[in-house]
């Protein structure tokens, strides 16, 4: 697959590498890295999801958002009336601060950043339900049980017709097929899945029938494994 970024990426150009930047994050400085290629797919799928929703002010929630380099450039590129409202939740203060700076630099007053524990729904209960939920960079870092817990909670996080964008690498065990089936089992409909030959997976699924019986959120969605 050719590498053709569709969105301006001010992060690569103007944000200096900081000494305190987490190690994993440095892969973003190489536009050909697996992480950068995955980012391009996430941005494309997010832009498509926003287009498909056709809402003036879609509400977006990104859990474990990093520095927001997926949501911020996509919203910045959208027409003024369709930028949407976004909440980014990230526990690393360096990344959360960079997200805030980049949102301000992009002139996006509708992006909010909360530095805290995204596994605790109490931190963003006031923002629910959302039209688009991003779970990017989570499913490769938590247990299978936490993945199923999180997927089961999605219908309590997303409004009817809303969409979730998720990622998971091919890393062994390759859980991508099972995760896709867990989404289906939870009543979501797969919209797209980008996987092989890439070593990552980017899935998009929609909530067609929110289930009021599942509207109770667990106290914790996941815990990152070290
Ligand atoms: C693999 S990175 C993905 C970041 C971003 N979504 C991306 O795709 O670039 C995982 C992120 O989750 C954050 N994180 C880990 N545990 C968290 C938690 N409990 N609450 C919020 N963020 C968390 C890490 O600091 C890191 O930025």
Give a brief rundown of this model:
By secondary structure, the chain is α/β, with parallel strands linked by helices. The protein has helices at residues 10-14, 34-53, 71-77, 93-105, 144-157, 176-185; strands at 59-63, 85-90, 111-115, 130-135, 158-169, 188-194, 200-207.
According to CATH, the homologous superfamily is Vaccinia Virus protein VP39
Shape: globular
Give the integer mean of the pLDDT values: 89
**In CATH, what is the class?**
Alpha Beta
Bound molecule types: S-adenosylmethionine
CATH fold annotation? Rossmann fold
Radius of gyration: 16 Å
**Cα end-to-end separation:** 32 Å
CATH architecture: 3-Layer(aba) Sandwich
Largest sheet data? 7 strands, mixed
Determine the fraction of residues in helical runs and give it as a percent range.
25-40%
Count of helical regions: 6
Element order: H for helix, E for strand: HHEHEHEEHEHEE
Number of strands: 7
Uncertain ranges: none
Query: What structural class results from the helix and strand content?
Result: alpha/beta
Domain tally: 1
Strand content: 15-25%
Strand order of the largest sheet: 3-2-1-4-5-7-6
